[in-house]
Amino acid sequence: MSLFKSILAAGVLAATALAGAAHAAFPDRTVTLIVPFAAGGSTDVVARVIAERMSADLGQPVVVQNVAGAGGSLGAGNVARAEPDGYTILMGTVATHALNPLMLKTKPYDAEKDFAPISLLVVVPNVLVVNPQLPAKTVAELLALLKANPDKYSYASSGNGTPLHLSGELFNSMAGVKMQHVPYKGSGPALNDLIGNQVSIMFDNLPSSSGHIKAGTLRALAVTTAERAPSFPDVPTMAEAGIPGYETYTWNALFAPAGTPKPVIDRLNAAAKAALANPGVVGRMKDFSATIVASTPEALGAHVKAEVAKWGPVVRAANVQMD
Question: Are 289 and 232 within 8 A, CB to CB?
Answer without folding.
Answer: yes
